[in-house]
Amino acid sequence: MRKVLVLTEAKAGNLRSVSLETLTAAHLIAEGGEIVAVAIGSEATHYANVLGKHGANKIYIIDNKDLDVYTTDAFSQALRQVIDAVEPDAILMPHTAIGKDLAPRIAARYGLGLVSDVIDVKVENDDVIFTRPIYSGKAFEKKKVVSGIPFATIRPNNIPVEEIIGTIEIVHFNVVIKNLRTIIKEVVRKTTGDVDLSEAKVVISGGRGVKSAEGFKPLQELADILDGAVGASRGACDAEYCDYSLQIGQTGKVVTPDLYIACGISGAIQHLAGMSNAKIVVAINKDPEAPIFQVADYGIVGDLFEVVPLLTEEFKKVLSNA
Ligand code: FAD
To answer: Ligand 1 pocket test: which of 208, 219, 287 has the largest number of ligand atoms within 8 Å of its C-beta?
Structure first.
């Protein structure tokens, strides 16, 4: 039995689904042990019951004004105080911008090995084994932590969420944050779509073939119908058709949606690194020889400006009858 500490994350007051996936991962390795969820922010009390329905036995709620906006400094101080109080046998965090930044800091402080970007967890012969993709998703490696307790970040959209209802205890945990070296004065948010790209179940992505910022509109319309998010290739970002926050690939975001529709994207290896683990890939391209068709489950050879509006119309019809 292991006591597993899970850092959960919310965005604009809403719990991110990767938090529940990370709790499920914790359940898989706890083997009946206690799962302690850490929820930061004044709104955490609103979703504490959701954490309880997904395996958390104890929820540490930390409400401190220095944690209203993420800084490495403040969050690592807070989390270290929780770790010292809980003394977990394993730690899991979502592989998000926060997890990617915070986990190495925590690992270094405690001298722990860290396995990042994990897509599967299991226990074999009493060892916690983490699976993660390597070589841009072309192969997978299994790892265990040999220095300290198992510690990993969990990639969104990979571990199916389970409902696990048990007893929950809520602990309002006070932390002392001091000597901050970074003060956030203002956060300016970019206006992208409502759905978070890295957690979206459907991603409609545009490449240089979209030809302009205006050309992304039909993609956004299709995304809206399917409750999805719009992404892009670096080609499209470099051409200033869209913001770099939409870039998917080796130097952009890694997405693992149920459905990925690549529109006017050639399929360079660096792009595939960010999307090839999508469950279903649909490619729309004028060039039948485009490499994207080699990874696509369904390929449409045609002009995206004709195909995408047709798809939107068809999805509208199908969904209105559903
Ligand atoms: P192109 O390769 O120009 O392809 C455009 C496609 O659109 C073509 O296949 C064309 O047939 C099709 N097309 C044109 N018009 C239409 C139309 N009307 N209808 C349908 N199809 C049409 N790239 C990434 O995406 N993500 C990364 O993270 C990334 N990181 C990189 C890191 C490094 C170190 C390097 C060197 C490169 C990186 N790249 C990355 C760039 C990558 O190599 C490619 O240059 C880029 O992905 C190409 O973008 P694209 O497919 O949109 O453009």
So the answer is: 208
**How would you label 36-60 residue by residue, b for 16+ Cβ within 10 Å and e otherwise?**
bbbbbbebbeebbeebbebbbbbbb
Please tell me whether residues 39 and 77 are part of one structural domain: yes
- Give the residue carrying structure tokens 């399917």: 226
Which residues lie below 8 Å from residue 290, measured CB to CB, with a gap of 6+?
266, 267, 283
H helix runs in the chain, sequence order: 17-30, 44-52, 72-86, 97-110, 217-225, 234-238, 269-272, 292-295, 304-321
CATH number of the domain that residue 288 is part of: 3.40.50.1220
Q: What is the pLDDT of residues 229-266, one digit of tens each?
A: 999 999 999 999 999 999 999 889 889 899 999 999 99
Q: What are the residues facing 6 on neighbouring strands?
A: 37, 92
Distance 121 CA to ligand 1 centre (A): 34
Is the distance from CB of 260 to CB of 282 less than 8 angstroms? yes
**Residue 87, in any domain of the structure:** yes
- For residue 248, the SS3 value is strand
The helix/strand/coil state of 122 is strand
Per-residue pLDDT tens digits for 147-158: 899 999 999 888
Whole-prediction pTM: 0.81
Establish whether residue 122 lines the binding site of ligand 1, counting it when its CB lies within 6 angstroms of any ligand atom. no
